[in-house]
Amino acid sequence: MRQIALYGKGGIGKSTTTSNLSAALSKMDNRVMQIGCDPKSDSTVPLTQGKRIPTVLELIREQELRREANAVTAQLTLEDLVYNGFNGVLCCEAGGPEPGVGCAGRGVITAIEMLKNQKAFEIYQPDVVLYDVLGDVVCGGFAMPIRQGLAEEVYVITSGEMMAIYACNNIFKGIYKFAKGGNIRVGGILLNSRGTPMEEELIRDFAKITGTEVIYVIPRDKIVQKCEMAGQTVIEGAPGSKQYEAYMEMAGKIVDNTSRTI
Ligand code: ADP
Ligand code: MG
User: Fold this and answer.
1) Computed over its alpha carbons, how large is the radius of gyration of the chain?
2) Please, which residues have CB within 8 angstroms of residue 178's CB and are 6 or more apart in sequence?
3) Distances from the Cα of 246 to the Cα of 216, 220, 225, 230, 243, angstroms
4) Which of ligand 1's atoms lies nearest the C-alpha of 10?
5) What are phi and psi of 66, to 5 degrees?
6) Ligand closest to CA 234
7) How far is the CA of 68 from the centre of ligand 1 (A)?
8) pLDDT tens, residue by residue, 127-171
């Protein structure tokens, strides 16, 4: 089982890239599981016909409310937590706190504990597990997937924008901390092109300085939004397009990538 985490700044294209990667890997005959670890809870939307699935935190909250009302409640099962998405991709959303209350990383901690307790990985036996994680703050909650026993390989998504590079560097620092005691390594950088000045040169320079590698440069294409509006990944919605070929190629590069950096 290959356990991969994709980190990056909010809005950089984590969910889009992760969903297309899941879909592409499923096309290559892999059993894939995607776990959304962003309070925004929209990671798997393009894999489930544009509809949100209930998050782990929402399901727990509902159950608590029913219990408070003295209703008889059945235990949450794996079928409640995990949805069957495009081409059999298993989808799960951790969820987030109610705005203004609680810790943003709490959903990630709870969801991962639930999945482990329910033996999700033993039962589904995925070939690849993808964690889509918000990397603006690498707090305990959001660091969960890169702690021992979970993801071993991290790809950071960035553009040439300073804030995205700043977040990327912060994630590298977090990994540096955990790598000493565990197996977590940086697999590399995915450059999600924004078209900023000297974008690729900047990121190649940043990779050199941090001793990492640029694994793939994802082109920017309006077809991504068109498919998004149809509730689909590019893999599902625009097979044969240039962007489809790009995501398939990216998936191949990630599968073949052996680079591991602390
Ligand atoms: P995040 O998960 O990091 O918050 P999203 O994946 O939701 O970010 O992406 C934010 C927006 O950027 C989405 O509306 C998506 O359609 C768009 N986007 C992401 N990658 C690309 C791309 N390569 N080309 C065009 N649009 C993109
Ligand atoms: Mg997202």
Assistant:
1) 18
2) 143, 146, 147, 148, 184
3) 9, 10, 15, 20, 5
4) 4
5) -65, -40
6) 1
7) 40
8) 999 999 998 877 778 888 887 668 889 999 999 999 999 999 999
Q: What is the pTM of this model?
A: 0.96
Residue 129's nearest CA partner among 38, 30, 20 is 30
Tokens standing for residue 73:
């409640």
Looking at residue 230, what DSSP letter applies?
T
pLDDT confidence of 225, banded at 50, 70, 90?
very high
Q: How many residues does the chain have?
A: 262
261 close to 222: Cβ distance less than 8 angstroms: no
Q: Is the CB of 231 under 6 A from ligand 1?
A: no
Is the CB–ligand 1 distance for residue 10 below 6 Å? Answer: yes
Residues 34/130, Cβ–Cβ less than 8 Å: yes
Tell me which residue has its CA closest to atom 14 in ligand 1.
225
14 is catalytic: yes
pLDDT at 100 over 80: no
Question: Which residue's entry shows tokens 């005691």?
Answer: 181
Distance of CA 19 to the CA centre of its chain: 8
Q: Which ligand is nearest to the Cα of residue 17, counting in written order?
A: 1
* Average pLDDT in the chain: 93
Long-range contacts of 214-217 (CB under 8 A, 24+ apart): 214/188, 214/189, 214/190, 215/155, 215/187, 215/188, 215/189, 215/190, 215/250, 215/253, 215/254, 215/257, 215/259, 216/190, 216/191, 216/249, 216/250, 216/253, 216/254, 217/191, 217/193
Which residues have CB under 8 Å from 191's CB, separation 6+? 157, 158, 159, 160, 199, 200, 203, 214, 216, 217, 218
